[in-house]
Design a protein that fits this description.
The structure holds 2 protein chains of 2 kinds.
Chain A: H1 8-13, H2 18-21, E1 31-36, H3 45-54, E2 80-88, E3 98-99, E4 105-113, H4 121-125, E5 131-133, E6 139-141, H5 152-155, E7 162-163, E8 170-171, H6 177-181, H7 187-191, E9 197-201, H8 202-218, E10 225-227, E11 240-244, H9 264-287
Parallel strand pairs in A: 1-11
Antiparallel strand pairs in A: 1-9, 2-4, 3-4, 5-6, 7-8, 10-11
Chain B: E1 5-7, E2 10-12, H1 23-26, H2 56-81, H3 85-109, H4 128-152, H5 156-182, H6 187-190, H7 196-215, H8 222-246, H9 251-254, H10 256-279, H11 284-314, H12 316-330
Antiparallel strand pairs in B: 1-2
Helix pairs in contact in B: 2-3, 2-5, 2-7, 2-11, 3-4, 3-7, 4-5, 5-7, 7-8, 7-11, 8-10, 10-11
The chains are: A alpha+beta, B mainly alpha.
Chain lengths: 292, 331
């Protein structure tokens, strides 16, 4: 596994292909997801397929009252999460997910997933090397190495990873690494009946997504926008990106995520200065101290 | 995930801020009213990042104990070099006890404690936890060696050398934890990454020197008194700067549990510093009480910072608002 020991400079300065930067000389193209939420029907087939394929345990048989959401957010036992948002909002003829009456409102539905960031904070902070970069450019937690330190959990700017309490280890979406290795698409994409979840080479997906936004804008859906597609953003672009119909925070996504390790060199520098100041202060405390 | 359950008496175990919003209940279920408008600033008030899964007693406790240990090692070595034997011995033992407690807490907090050894698989500068592991791996044995030698009288020159090694690593042990918590997406911790190292180094110095005032006789406590005052001033000043820097996120440090703790911590630290300055070299009881206040102040500071981080991670506004402001500024 070439990716477990990414050097600081590697992670912070490079902006190209993550698999290449992680030390893979010869590797397949970077694979990812484009989740087009404008055609999500909220069927949760992705959640179910993911659970079935990956043996993800039950994540709570809850009634949240958050529209039709019962899984609430990504976590150790929820690797795909379908968000449901009900908005009182004027809707146009072009939209399929609307109900037209005196108080017309719209449903926003979106299947969230691990973003498989170009600059992945979880991978950077993992102290055991359990989290590694695959040859497909995706980010995977090795369950046989993870010791449940939990550092990746608050490091993730999207709130993807979490601890499985009765197990002690951390789990998240693997982008079906086992399926990718034998040329199969991930279970969620395979199960999605509307192709809201599209799997493929990231470059191709980005081009397809740009075309889709243009198409929607021409059709009058001016609120359509891409999220996580930009390699210049704070995480170097997501391997799994989205087409949204409202601001990211409405879907529970951070509007401008930044990989925390971007600031780590500055932190180490200040830790060094503080430690030096502490030692110097102690020396001065002794040197100048009088005796009884 | 939520443990919420529907019972005959209503909802149980509902997590705060995540209560079900059932529009039909709030408007009497009249048709045509439509659902309550979904808030535009979050997804049902749910947190954006997943809050840390660290146990407060383990990790906030470690932040304190690690600082106490690091500073005590410095005092012990200083006491050794300047022939202050009581200060040296007691600080040395304090450092060993504190670092033993730290290691216990850190391993206890792992989801798989038996796998703590996996920390030694890699050395990763991008992970302060990895670097911290290696710092502790060098620091702890030196500490235990110097204490064991002191207590048993075996190999004293080696023990003293080990004590000097522990003192050299002490500042690193005391301050790397700032990078440990700041290198996350937790708004209150990451946002304070510039000030946190100074806050932690100051807090550690104040705790270690506070213990020195508590444990050493008046004849030997002059260095502890000076270090206590410097540490307390650094801690209070860094905290002031940090809260100013954090902007709206500073609210997580001023309200709730974190607010109460940090207020109490400031009072204890200020009281301890004034006590150390006035009574530290005159009155044994006064010196001990001042030292105890400083040790307590440092501990409560760490638990306050921990609570602020948790509060800022749980409420989505601390994640969304600064990011939104950043975006709006660049647009």
């Amino acid at each position: 596994m070439g990716g477990s020991g990414d050097g600081l400079l590697n992670v912070l300065l490079a902006g190209g292909d993550p698999a290449t930067e992680s030390g893979y000389d010869d590797h397949p193209p970077r694979m990812g997801f484009f989740t087009d939420t404008s055609i999500c029907i909220g069927c949760k087939a992705c959640e179910v397929a993911c659970k079935e394929w990956n043996h993800v345990p039950e994540d709570g048989l809850n009634w949240t009252g958050w529209s039709h959401d019962n899984t609430q957010g990504l976590g150790a036992d929820t690797w795909r999460h379908v968000a449901f948002i009900e908005q009182r909002s004027p809707v146009g003829e072009h939209q399929s997910n609307f109900q037209r009456d005196a108080d017309s409102f719209r449903w926003l539905m979106s299947s969230d997933v691990c973003k498989h960031c170009t600059h992945a904070a979880c991978l950077d902070v993992c102290p055991t090397g359990a989290i590694f970069r695959t040859e497909f450019g995706t980010v995977v937690v090795q369950a046989d190495v993870c010791n449940g330190c939990g550092y990746c959990v608050p490091a993730c700017p999207y709130g993807v990873l979490d601890k499985r309490e009765d197990d002690g280890r951390i789990f998240k979406c693997t982008l079906c690494y086992d399926r990718l290795e034998v040329g199969q698409e991930p279970a969620c994409a395979k199960a999605c009946p509307t192709d809201s979840i599209q799997f493929g080479e990231l470059d191709e997906l980005r081009a397809r997504a740009a075309g889709r936004v243009e198409q929607l804008h021409e059709a009058g859906v001016v609120e359509a926008r891409l999220y996580g597609h930009d390699p210049e953003d704070g995480v170097g672009g997501d391997g799994a990106f989205f087409l949204l119909l409202d601001e990211p925070e409405v879907y529970g996504l951070p509007p401008d995520p930044v990989v925390t390790t971007r600031d780590l060199p500055a932190m180490w520098k200040r830790v060094g200065i503080a430690a030096g100041a502490m030692l110097a202060g102690a020396v001065v405390s002794f040197v100048g101290a009088g005796r009884e | 995930m939520s443990d919420a359950q529907v019972t005959r008496e209503g909802l149980e175990n509902v997590r705060p801020g995540r209560e079900a919003r059932i529009w039909s209940a709030s408007n009497g279920g009249r048709r045509g009213e439509g659902p309550v408008d979904h808030p535009r600033s979050s997804y049902y008030g749910n947190s954006i990042i997943n809050p840390p899964v660290w146990e407060e007693l383990d990790i906030a406790g470690y932040l304190f104990l690690g600082g106490l240990a690091g500073a005590s090692s410095i005092l012990a070595a200083g006491g050794d070099l300047t022939r202050r034997p009581t200060l040296a011995r007691r600080s040395r033992l304090c450092a060993s006890a504190a670092i033993a407690g730290s290691l216990t807490a850190l391993i206890h907090d792992l989801g798989r404690p038996a796998r703590f050894i996996n920390m030694m698989r890699v050395v990763k500068p991008t992970s302060p936890m990895s670097i911290g592991t290696w710092i502790l791996a060098a620091y702890s044995p030196l500490n235990f060696a110097t204490s064991a030698s002191d207590l048993t009288g075996i190999a004293r020159p080696v023990g003293r050398a080990a004590g000097l090694g522990a003192a050299a690593l002490g500042p690193a042990v005391a301050s790397y934890t700032a990078a440990l918590i700041a290198n996350t997406a937790v708004p209150a911790w990451h946002g304070a990454h510039r000030e946190m190292p100074f806050l932690f180094a100051g807090s550690a110095a104040s705790a270690g020197a506070g213990f020195g005032l508590l444990a050493a006789p008046l004849a030997e406590n002059a260095p502890a008194q000076r270090m206590a005052m410097a540490g307390a001033v650094a801690e209070l000043a860094a905290e002031q700067l940090m809260e100013r820097r954090l902007g709206m996120v500073a609210e997580s440090m001023r309200t709730g549990t974190a607010g109460k703790r940090l207020k109490a911590a400031k009072a204890l630290t200020a009281l301890g510093a004034v006590g150390a300055a006035t009574l530290g070299r005159r009155n044994r009881v006064g010196a001990a009480l001042s030292g105890a206040a400083l040790v307590a102040g440092s501990a409560v500071t760490r638990f306050g910072i921990f609570a602020a981080g948790m509060a800022s991670a749980t409420d989505p506004k601390y994640t969304v608002e600064p990011q939104r402001a950043r975006l709006d500024a660049t647009r």
